[in-house]
Design brief:
NAD(P)-bd_dom_sf; about 25% helix; alcohol dehydrogenase (NAD+) activity; six-stranded parallel sheet; alpha/beta; zinc; Zn-dependent alcohol dehydrogenase; Rossmann fold; Quinone Oxidoreductase, Chain A, domain 1
């Protein structure tokens, strides 16, 4: 089968012809119909998340097939799989655990001590087929097609969890930093659907700002031409923001948006751009603000976002469908800030 693989750090992905894996036990072989392209794949190709090196520090073994936003049809199943049939159209939660560690036992399998992350340390969906370690991480699609569903398995699950951690309600105001991208447009939609909060979308390109507006943001700020803190003070009448979801966590965003928090505000840190947080500790105490990390999502988050999307409450903004062979171009678009919404590869 054709597969686009990370073979060497810092170099373009390579199209290879590799064997089709054979499922056994609880495993399932999926014929990939769509694979969303995530900014994490930029970091994978670069070989680092900030100062953390994917090989030396995180234990990723090369070569590996990238692609963790997965939807497709069941091609073959191991003998322990129940409840599914060949040909079923499914989306796949790629953030899987081995099932026995403390975090798996408490339902936080995405934090597993020995994770099975598809497209990271297990072969992913930039291929014609992908092997799923356990069928329990699949969701049978009823209304969505594969292209619509694939981004939900990362951009959807990640922002679903981040919004949940933000503790929003109709009295609250949320800032989404990076609101015009694949995660940002999902965060805006999810927050509106589940909380009714007021949403301020922030980005640095006019095209991205307009995309955030189309996603449902109540207000938008182009931080490249406007003073975001002044605009936030104006919109909130001086109170500040109840929550920020930072999908970048760059030096620029972490130097600006924590200053926008209201008393008891929450700063949800999602992005992996690799900056360090510098914030005067007494201000955290005096205002009772919180800085909270949020990593992808657990199985409950996965089921939550899938049900929300199948009910028509949210929908990924697919802006470009591309061929498998164009994976490097899609990642280039993200790395060079030329993409809005979500790009999807179709093998």
């Amino acid at each position: 089968m054709r597969a686009v693989r990370l073979v060497e750090i810092g170099k373009p992905l390579v199209l290879k012809d590799i064997d089709i894996p054979k499922p056994k036990g609880a495993q399932v072989l999926i014929k990939v119909e769509a694979a969303g392209v995530c900014h994490s794949d930029v970091h994978m190709r670069q070989g680092r998340f900030g100062n953390l090196r994917i090989v030396e520090d995180l234990g990723v073994k090369l070569p590996v097939t990238l692609g963790h936003e997965i939807a497709g049809k069941i091609e073959e199943m191991g003998d322990e799989v129940v409840g599914y049939s060949k040909g079923d159209l499914v989306a796949v939660n790629p953030w899987q655990g081995e099932g026995n560690c403390y975090y798996c036992r408490i339902g936080e399998e995405h934090l597993c001590d020995s994770p099975r992350w598809l497209g990271i340390n297990f072969d992913g969906a930039y291929a014609e087929y992908v092997l799923i370690p356990h069928y329990k991480y699949m969701y049978r699609l009823r209304r969505l097609n594969a292209v619509e569903a694939s981004p939900l398995t990362c951009s959807g699950i990640t922002t679903y969890r981040a919004v949940r951690k933000a503790s929003l309600d109709p009295t609250k105001t949320l800032v989404v930093v990076g609101a015009g991208g694949g995660l940002g447009t999902m965060a805006v939609q999810i927050a509106k659907a589940v909380s009714g909060a007021t949403i301020i979308g922030v980005d640095v390109r006019e095209e991205a700002v307009e995309t955030a507006k189309r996603a449902g943001a109540d207000y938008v700020i182009n931080a490249s031409v406007q003073d975001p803190l002044a605009e936030i003070r104006r919109i909130t009448e001086g109170k500040g923001i109840d929550a920020v979801i930072d999908l970048n966590n760059s030096e620029k965003t972490l130097s600006v948006y924590p200053k926008a928090l209201a008393k008891q505000g929450k700063y949800i840190m999602v992005g992996l751009f690799g900056a360090d947080l510098h914030f005067h500790a007494p201000l955290i105490t005096l205002s009772e603000i919180q800085f909270v990390g949020s990593l992808v999502g657990n199985q409950s988050d996965f089921l939550g976002i899938m049900r929300l999307a199948e009910a028509g409450k949210v929908k990924p903004m697919i802006t470009k469908s591309m061929k498998l062979e164009e994976a490097n171009e899609a990642i280039d678009n993200l790395e060079n800030f030329k993409a809005v919404g979500r790009q999807v590869l179709i093998p």
